[in-house]
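FW: tagging you since you asked about this chain on Friday. Here's the raw sequence from the shared folder, copied in full. Didn't touch anything.
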Amino acid sequence: MGAKAGLVHLGEGLPSAALRAALRPDLERSAELAATVLGGPVGADGTRVLTEEGVWPERGTICVAAWEASALIGYREIGPDRPSEIGAWIKAVSPTGSAHGVFMHSAVDYGAFAVWEGGELRRSISLAADAGTMEDTGDRYPFEAPFWTGARGLAHAPDYPLPFHPLDLAEEALLAFFGFGIERSPSTFTIDADTIELPAFRLKE
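HL: got it, structure written out here
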């Protein structure tokens, strides 16, 4: 699969806290949110493991785990070039207007993440090898510092068009916010992500 992700957590606090609680998703809430995102009635399509298809389910499938005050969405169509562009959607579907999102696609060296608090964009960064820096707004997080100071530079690839690899930054955000990574060793995870299964849905035919 490579490093691909379209992952959004709706609700207050770090997504890793919700995942660490390991509460069983409310299937009715999950289906309702899936229908809202897909724009029509949905049917259940089994489950997907978070660290596998859960972050990038097959085309036409959405993974949604909804709880009383938060929800986790894995959907390949959710990652825009500029995360700020989905701010209105975040405000509409998040219980509090707060959210964390991480997006990446290894085929085009694209990596991005964004954080909304109370419906307002707090931070958004989006980069790709061909397009360069598409968005960089808001205060940087501490985990970003090594990238901007050159400590995470690409000495082995001096002709690379960016000072660091977008996927490396997105992976760091995924670990910092969600507690796991895609191409990182599970020993670095702060949650038991390999055991978390997300309900999956598809539009009814």
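FW: The longest strand covers residues 120-128.
HL: agreed, and The two ends are 27 Å apart (CA to CA).
FW: great, closing this out.
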